Amino acid sequence: VVGDVLGAPRGAPAVTVEVALGDRAYPIHIGPGLLGRAGELVRAALPKAGRAFVVSDETVAGLYLEPLAATLEAAGLAWTGHIVPAGEASKSVGRLEALLDAMLGFGLERGTPVIALGGGVVGDLAGFAAAVALRGVPLVQIPTTLLSQVDSSVGGKTAVNSRHGKNLIGAFHQPRLVLADTDTLDSLPPRELLAGYAETAKYGLIGDAGFWDWLEANGAALLAGDARGRAEAIAVSCRAKAAVVAADEREAGQRALLNLGHTFGHALEAETGYGAALLHGEAVAIGMVMAFDLSHRIGLCPGQDVARVRRHLEAVGLPVRPDPARSWDIDRLMGHMARDKKVEDGRVTFVVADGIGKAHLKRDVPAAAVRETLAAALS
Ligand code: NAD
Ligand code: MG
């Protein structure tokens, strides 16, 4: 639904995408100026709430906590905030425990919303706390990174990390409202914006060749700052994710398509320690090129499509192969893939493609072909 239903104050009109989950359906509002209207929008979604518990990280709180607080207060919502350090390390059981303590100390009630203001780290941590505190309190996502606006804030996956691996302690807990204020992307470091772009492009590669064409024409401009293009790309991405989540909320099948590029990507991240050396979106960009290369090797995808994927991601500035300055070991990478959370009966399910926009799941990919893809990328 495109229109000025929210009466967006400036710039492009806000867009609303609905996640159709029956009585747990919720809206994703996308557009400029939404942070300044958070109070009234939270009130509209949760009319009985009198208070709110805000979770953010140090960087995002420094930029956006004051304006959020002002609009909550203007809407008559009392609030308190809990700020964690920025970065993946905050998705820990220790941080979770401290957060739950603060929430319960605040006197959280079953109807008190937890508002996650930040990127995927804050969203996943606050989301999981909201899932387990009092067996579940309402969650509002205010994602401030491109990655969280197109991916992590939508769909209800929440988690913290274990020393045994990433996202291993979590729950499905759908938000009641998502506010993707595109203005917040103006302060995002370019590298983080680009990493989010990889997840955006993923939706084109999975099931929307027309969107991929559009990104080839408009991607560079939206990365450079074109606000309308950003809102458009976020809306298309959220519509795609919302459709998949509505059809397969708990990843019994189709939702696994969203893992395009992630099996290879996670192996690279595991080797680089999930840190600044290789951001998740960067690993996904490389992984998507590898998934298309693999699809070509096993006779599914035409070579021109592999070249197109590589060319566009490279053109916007994403990495398309593992850093050649590092030493990589194919056996170790194969080992990481075999330990992926998505492995069933010891068999890795790959997301492969018959071409751009034609992804599907495949369980019996020969290991030799996977090795060839890795070897080619590392040569
Ligand atoms: P992030 O939350 O760490 O944010 C990246 C960096 O940008 C941080 O330093 C943050 O402080 C800063 N930042 C955030 N918004 C900003 C803004 N507007 N201006 C300036 N700086 C800003 O990382 P992310 O990429 O948003 O999310 C990654 C996390 O999301 C990972 O932990 C991943 O596992 C998770 N994730 C979850 C899902 C899901 O479905 N739940 C999906 C994808 C990813
Ligand atoms: Mg991802």
Automatic annotation (TrEMBL):
Domain of life: Bacteria
Details of cofactor binding: Binds 1 divalent metal cation per subunit. Can use either Co(2+) or Zn(2+).
Pathway: Metabolic intermediate biosynthesis; chorismate biosynthesis; chorismate from D-erythrose 4-phosphate and phosphoenolpyruvate: step 2/7
All copies of domain 3-dehydroquinate synthase N-terminal, residue ranges: 83-193
InterPro entries: Dehydroquinate_synthase, DHQ_synth_AroB, DHQ_synth_fam, DHQS/DOIS_N, DHQS_C
UniProt keyword Cytoplasm present: yes
Reaction(s) catalysed by this chain's protein: 7-phospho-2-dehydro-3-deoxy-D-arabino-heptonate = 3-dehydroquinate + phosphate
Binding-site residues, Zn(2+): 199, 262, 280
EC number per UniProt: 4.2.3.4
UniProt binding sites for NAD(+): 120-124, 144-145, 157, 166
Cofactor: Co(2+); Zn(2+); NAD(+)
Keywords assigned: Amino-acid biosynthesis, Aromatic amino acid biosynthesis, Cobalt, Cytoplasm, Lyase, Metal-binding, NAD, Nucleotide-binding, Zinc
Enzyme class: lyase
Subcellular location: Cytoplasm
Keyword Calcium annotated: no
GO cellular component, one term: cytoplasm
Gene3D superfamilies on file: 3.40.50.1970, Dehydroquinate synthase-like - alpha domain
Primary localization: cytoplasm
Family stated for the protein in its record: Belongs to the sugar phosphate cyclases superfamily. Dehydroquinate synthase family.
Function: Catalyzes the conversion of 3-deoxy-D-arabino-heptulosonate 7-phosphate (DAHP) to dehydroquinate (DHQ).
Name recorded for this polypeptide: 3-dehydroquinate synthase
Organism: Roseospira navarrensis
